[in-house]
C-alpha cells in the first residue's frame, strides 16, 4: 500500500487534505438524512433593516463639450480583468473630457484568447449608452494617426502605477493629452483608485452595469442555457444553484497545495508550474509550506469539498447545480463524489449541443462570458476561490437583486479545520455549515467603504435605498 497520503505523526489541524476520509465517514448519515429543509427556497430569509436598494445611475442629457484628445488603452488579463480596464477607461475619459477609442485586448499567454471587444461585447450598444457622457469611437482620425505613421506603438505611452488617484490623471496625463492630442496607456487593468469622487464613480457604474452588454451570440446562448437550467429545476420552482469552481490544473499548480493524488499529482503539478511560471517556484531559498497554505484557507476547494459543504447547508440530491469552470484537473476522479452528491449537476458542455458551443470553443473569454450569464440568473451563486469572476458577479447580482448578492462565500479557514476533524458527526457538521450559510446571507447586503470596489459593492455608488413609501407607491402604480 502506498504511503503518499499517510499524515506525519505531528501535524497542525487543517494542514492536510483528508476530505475523502471525512466524506466516506459522513456519507451513510448524509444519505439517510431526511430532515433537510428545502434549502433553495428558504435560503435568503433575513429581513434587512436597511430595506432594499434599487439601481439609480443618472445618465447625462446634456451635449458633450469639445473633446480634448483621444485615449487609447490596452486591457490586459482575462474577461473580468479586461472589464475593469474598460470601466476605468470610461471613467478617466469622461473625467478628462477625452474621446475613448474602443479598448484593445492584449493576447495573454495563459488565456490565449484573440477576441476583440466586439466579439465579447455589443459595441454599438456600448457607444450608444455612453453617448451623452463619454465619446467613444472605434478608430482615431487619419489626420492624427499620420503623425505617428499610422502605428499606435509610436504614440506616447503612459506607464501608470496601479491604483493611481484621479487627480494624477488631471495633473500628469491631461497636459500630455492636450499637447499630443492622443495618448496610450498600456497596460491598463487596475490603474485607477477605488476611492474616487461621485461623478467619476457614476461613470464606472454606467459603464459596468448598463453599457457593457455581451454580444448577441454570447447573450443568446447564455439565455438559452438559463432557460434550460430553469426547465431542469422544475422540482424547485425553476430555481438552481451556480458554483464557480477553480480546480483547473494551472490553478491547483499555482496554489502549491497538496491533495491526494500521490506521485502522479506531484509530477503533474511540477510540470504545470514550470510550463506556466518558469523558475518562479524553484528559486534558490524559496520554501513552500502547503500545510500553512491550507490552514490559511488559500487552497482551491475540490469538487468533493464543495459537495460536502452544500449538502451540509441543506441542499439535497434534488438540487440542480450549474458548474462554471474550466477543465477540472484529474476530472474523472475529482468529479465522481460531487456527482454522487448532486446527480442533477450540469455544465455548459452538458446542456448545450456541440454545435451551439462550437463558435466559442477555442475562446476562453467567450466561454467565461457564457458561464457568467448562467451564474448571474441563478437563485444561489457559490464562489470557492475569489478572483475577478466572482468579484464582478457579486456586484452584478446585488445590482439585479435589490442590493443582496445572494452569494455563498465560505470561510475556508473554518472549512480546512472541519474537513480535518476525524470526530465530527453529520449533525454537528451540518450545524457548522448552516452557520457559514447564515453568515453569507447576512453579508449579502454590504455598504461600500472607500477601499471597496464598486464592481462588487454597488451600494451606494450605483444604487439608492428604496424606502417603504417609494416601494408602496411603485407597487400601487403597476
TrEMBL record:
One of its GO terms (molecular function) is glycosyltransferase activity. One of its GO terms (biological process) is fucose metabolic process. Keywords: Carbohydrate metabolism, Fucose metabolism, Glycosyltransferase, Transferase. It comes from Anisodus acutangulus. Belongs to the glycosyltransferase GT106 family. It holds the Pfam family O-FucT. PANTHER family: O-FUCOSYLTRANSFERASE FAMILY PROTEIN, PROTEIN ESMERALDA 1. The lineage of its organism: Eukaryota, Viridiplantae, Streptophyta, Embryophyta, Tracheophyta. InterPro entries: FucosylTrfase_pln, GDP-Fuc_O-FucTrfase. It comes from the Eukaryota. This is O-fucosyltransferase family protein.
Amino acid at each position: 500500500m502506498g504511503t503518499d497520503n499517510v499524515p506525519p505523526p505531528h501535524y497542525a489541524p487543517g494542514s492536510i487534505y483528508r476530505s475523502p476520509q471525512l466524506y466516506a465517514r459522513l456519507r451513510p448519515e448524509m444519505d439517510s438524512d431526511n430532515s433537510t429543509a428545502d434549502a433553495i427556497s428558504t435560503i435568503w430569509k433575513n429581513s434587512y433593516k436597511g430595506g432594499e436598494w434599487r439601481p439609480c445611475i443618472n445618465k447625462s442629457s446634456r451635449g458633450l463639450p469639445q473633446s480634448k484628445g483621444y485615449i487609447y488603452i490596452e486591457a490586459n488579463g482575462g474577461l473580468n480583468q479586461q472589464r475593469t480596464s474598460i470601466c476605468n477607461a470610461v471613467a478617466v475619459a469622461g473625467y478628462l473630457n477625452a474621446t475613448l477609442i474602443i479598448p484593445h485586448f492584449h493576447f495573454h499567454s495563459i488565456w490565449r484568447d484573440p477576441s476583440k471587444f466586439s466579439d465579447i461585447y455589443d459595441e454599438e450598444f456600448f457607444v450608444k449608452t455612453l453617448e451623452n457622457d463619454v465619446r467613444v469611437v472605434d478608430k482615431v482620425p487619419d489626420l492624427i494617426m499620420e503623425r505617428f505613421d499610422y502605428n499606435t506603438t509610436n504614440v506616447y505611452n503612459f506607464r501608470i502605477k496601479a491604483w493611481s488617484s484621479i487627480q494624477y490623471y488631471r495633473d500628469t496625463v491631461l497636459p500630455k493629452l492636450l499637447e499630443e492630442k492622443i495618448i496610450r496607456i498600456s497596460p491598463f487593468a487596475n490603474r485607477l483608485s477605488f476611492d474616487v469622487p461621485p461623478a467619476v464613480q457614476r461613470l464606472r457604474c454606467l459603464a459596468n452595469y448598463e453599457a457593457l452588454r455581451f454580444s448577441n451570440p454570447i447573450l443568446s446562448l447564455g439565455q438559452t442555457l438559463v432557460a434550460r437550467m430553469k426547465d431542469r429545476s422544475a422540482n424547485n420552482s425553476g430555481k438552481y444553484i451556480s458554483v464557480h469552481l477553480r480546480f483547473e490544473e494551472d490553478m491547483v499548480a499555482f496554489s502549491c497545495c497538496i491533495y491526494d493524488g500521490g506521485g502522479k499529482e506531484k509530477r503533474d503539478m511540477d510540470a504545470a508550474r514550470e510550463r506556466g511560471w518558469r523558475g518562479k517556484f524553484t528559486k534558490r531559498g524559496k520554501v513552500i509550506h502547503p500545510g500553512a497554505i491550507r490552514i490559511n484557507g488559500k487552497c482551491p476547494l475540490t469538487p468533493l469539498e464543495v459537495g460536502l459543504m452544500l449538502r451540509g447547508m441543506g441542499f439535497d440530491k434534488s438540487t440542480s447545480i450549474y458548474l462554471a469552470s474550466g477543465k477540472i484537473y484529474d476530472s474523472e476522479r475529482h468529479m465522481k463524489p460531487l456527482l454522487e452528491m448532486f446527480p442533477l449537476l450540469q455544465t455548459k458542455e452538458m446542456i448545450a449541443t456541440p454545435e451551439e458551443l462550437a463558435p466559442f470553443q477555442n475562446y476562453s473569454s467567450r466561454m467565461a462570458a457564457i458561464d457568467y450569464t448562467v451564474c448571474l440568473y441563478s437563485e444561489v451563486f457559490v464562489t470557492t476561490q475569489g478572483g475577478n469572476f466572482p468579484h464582478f458577479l457579486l456586484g452584478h447580482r446585488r445590482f439585479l437583486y435589490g442590493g443582496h448578492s445572494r452569494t455563498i462565500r465560505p470561510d475556508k479557514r473554518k472549512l480546512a479545520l472541519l474537513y480535518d476533524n476525524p470526530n465530527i458527526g453529520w449533525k454537528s457538521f451540518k450545524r457548522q455549515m448552516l452557520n457559514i450559510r447564515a453568515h453569507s446571507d447576512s453579508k449579502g447586503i454590504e455598504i461600500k467603504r472607500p477601499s471597496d470596489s464598486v464592481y462588487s459593492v454597488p451600494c451606494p455608488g450605483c444604487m439608492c435605498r428604496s424606502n417603504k413609501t417609494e416601494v408602496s407607491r411603485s407597487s400601487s402604480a403597476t
